[in-house]
Amino acid sequence: MSCNGHGASMQVRGLRYGPAGIDPLIDGVSFQLDPGDRLAIVGPNGAGKTTLLRCLYRALKPGQGSVLLDGYDIWSLDPRDLARRVAVVLQEMPADFSFTVEDIVTMGRIPWRRSGWLPAIGQRSACAASEKAAVWHAMEHLNVVNLAKRGFATLSGGEKQRVLVARALAQDPQVLILDEPSNHLDIRNQLEILDLLRGLGITVITTLHDINLAAGFATRALLLHGGRAIAEGLPEDVLTEANLSATFSVKAHIHATGNGSAPNFSFALRA
């Protein structure tokens, strides 16, 4: 496993999803990512961010539109092939796993096993060594090696989040999809996680509530409201005062840093 891998391209065309009889939860969303792009999806609660992610990793099948991974519709791919190329870290935190941290991270290698949970007998030693190296490599990057033998259920929320990201990293994906990866993390850990993701060299798609984190992390941004894309493109073109004020019903103000860094945002309620 390499923690500086190669990303895949993703093209989303006219995505529409929603149960029959109600307004669509996602309606007409399109965007394109080049390998190695980092997309931050932002928007108010109920904007459709998590639903969009579920369409991107094939948990939900859109009623219209398509999601292409390196030019192939994800619904045409073998599930194991898709699992080898796309890893997911969900917002929902598992409450009680009766596994150790090492067990959880090792689960990220399942798509690479030739015969399910165990490799063929003749390949077991070589596969086990390679797998263990990949698992420990991922744990080292997420700084959870010291937790390897701890029960997952005994960890704090922040520790659990780091372990779940390590599991996704052990999967050696080309695309990493995360739903609010900064949840449960203090400021330092938020910055460390995003800095790690920035250096992976793979395509990253994540939802983020914190606009300042999104602006500093993303190479592309998608602003959602009511299931529709309000704006998509470079962060400086999407995360504008006008767009953010209208989408979140607040007064947004951008503070230029003047040192080449991402701008800082502040928000206030409208009078």
TrEMBL record:
A GO term, aspect molecular function: ATP binding
Coiled-coil ranges per UniProt: none
InterPro entries cross-referenced by the UniProt entry: AAA+_ATPase, ABC_transporter-like_ATP-bd, ABC_transporter-like_CS, P-loop_NTPase
Organism domain of life: Bacteria
Xref: Gene3D superfamilies: P-loop containing nucleotide triphosphate hydrolases
Keywords on record: ATP-binding, Nucleotide-binding, Transport
All copies of domain ABC transporter, residue ranges: 10-251
Pfam families: ABC_tran
Signal peptide: none
Annotated PROSITE patterns: ABC_TRANSPORTER_1 (PS00211), ABC_TRANSPORTER_2 (PS50893)
Homology family: Belongs to the ABC transporter superfamily.
PANTHER family in the cross-refs: ABC TRANSPORTER ATP-BINDING PROTEIN, HEMIN IMPORT ATP-BINDING PROTEIN HMUV
The name this protein goes by in its record: ABC-type cobalamin/Fe3+-siderophores transport system ATPase subunit
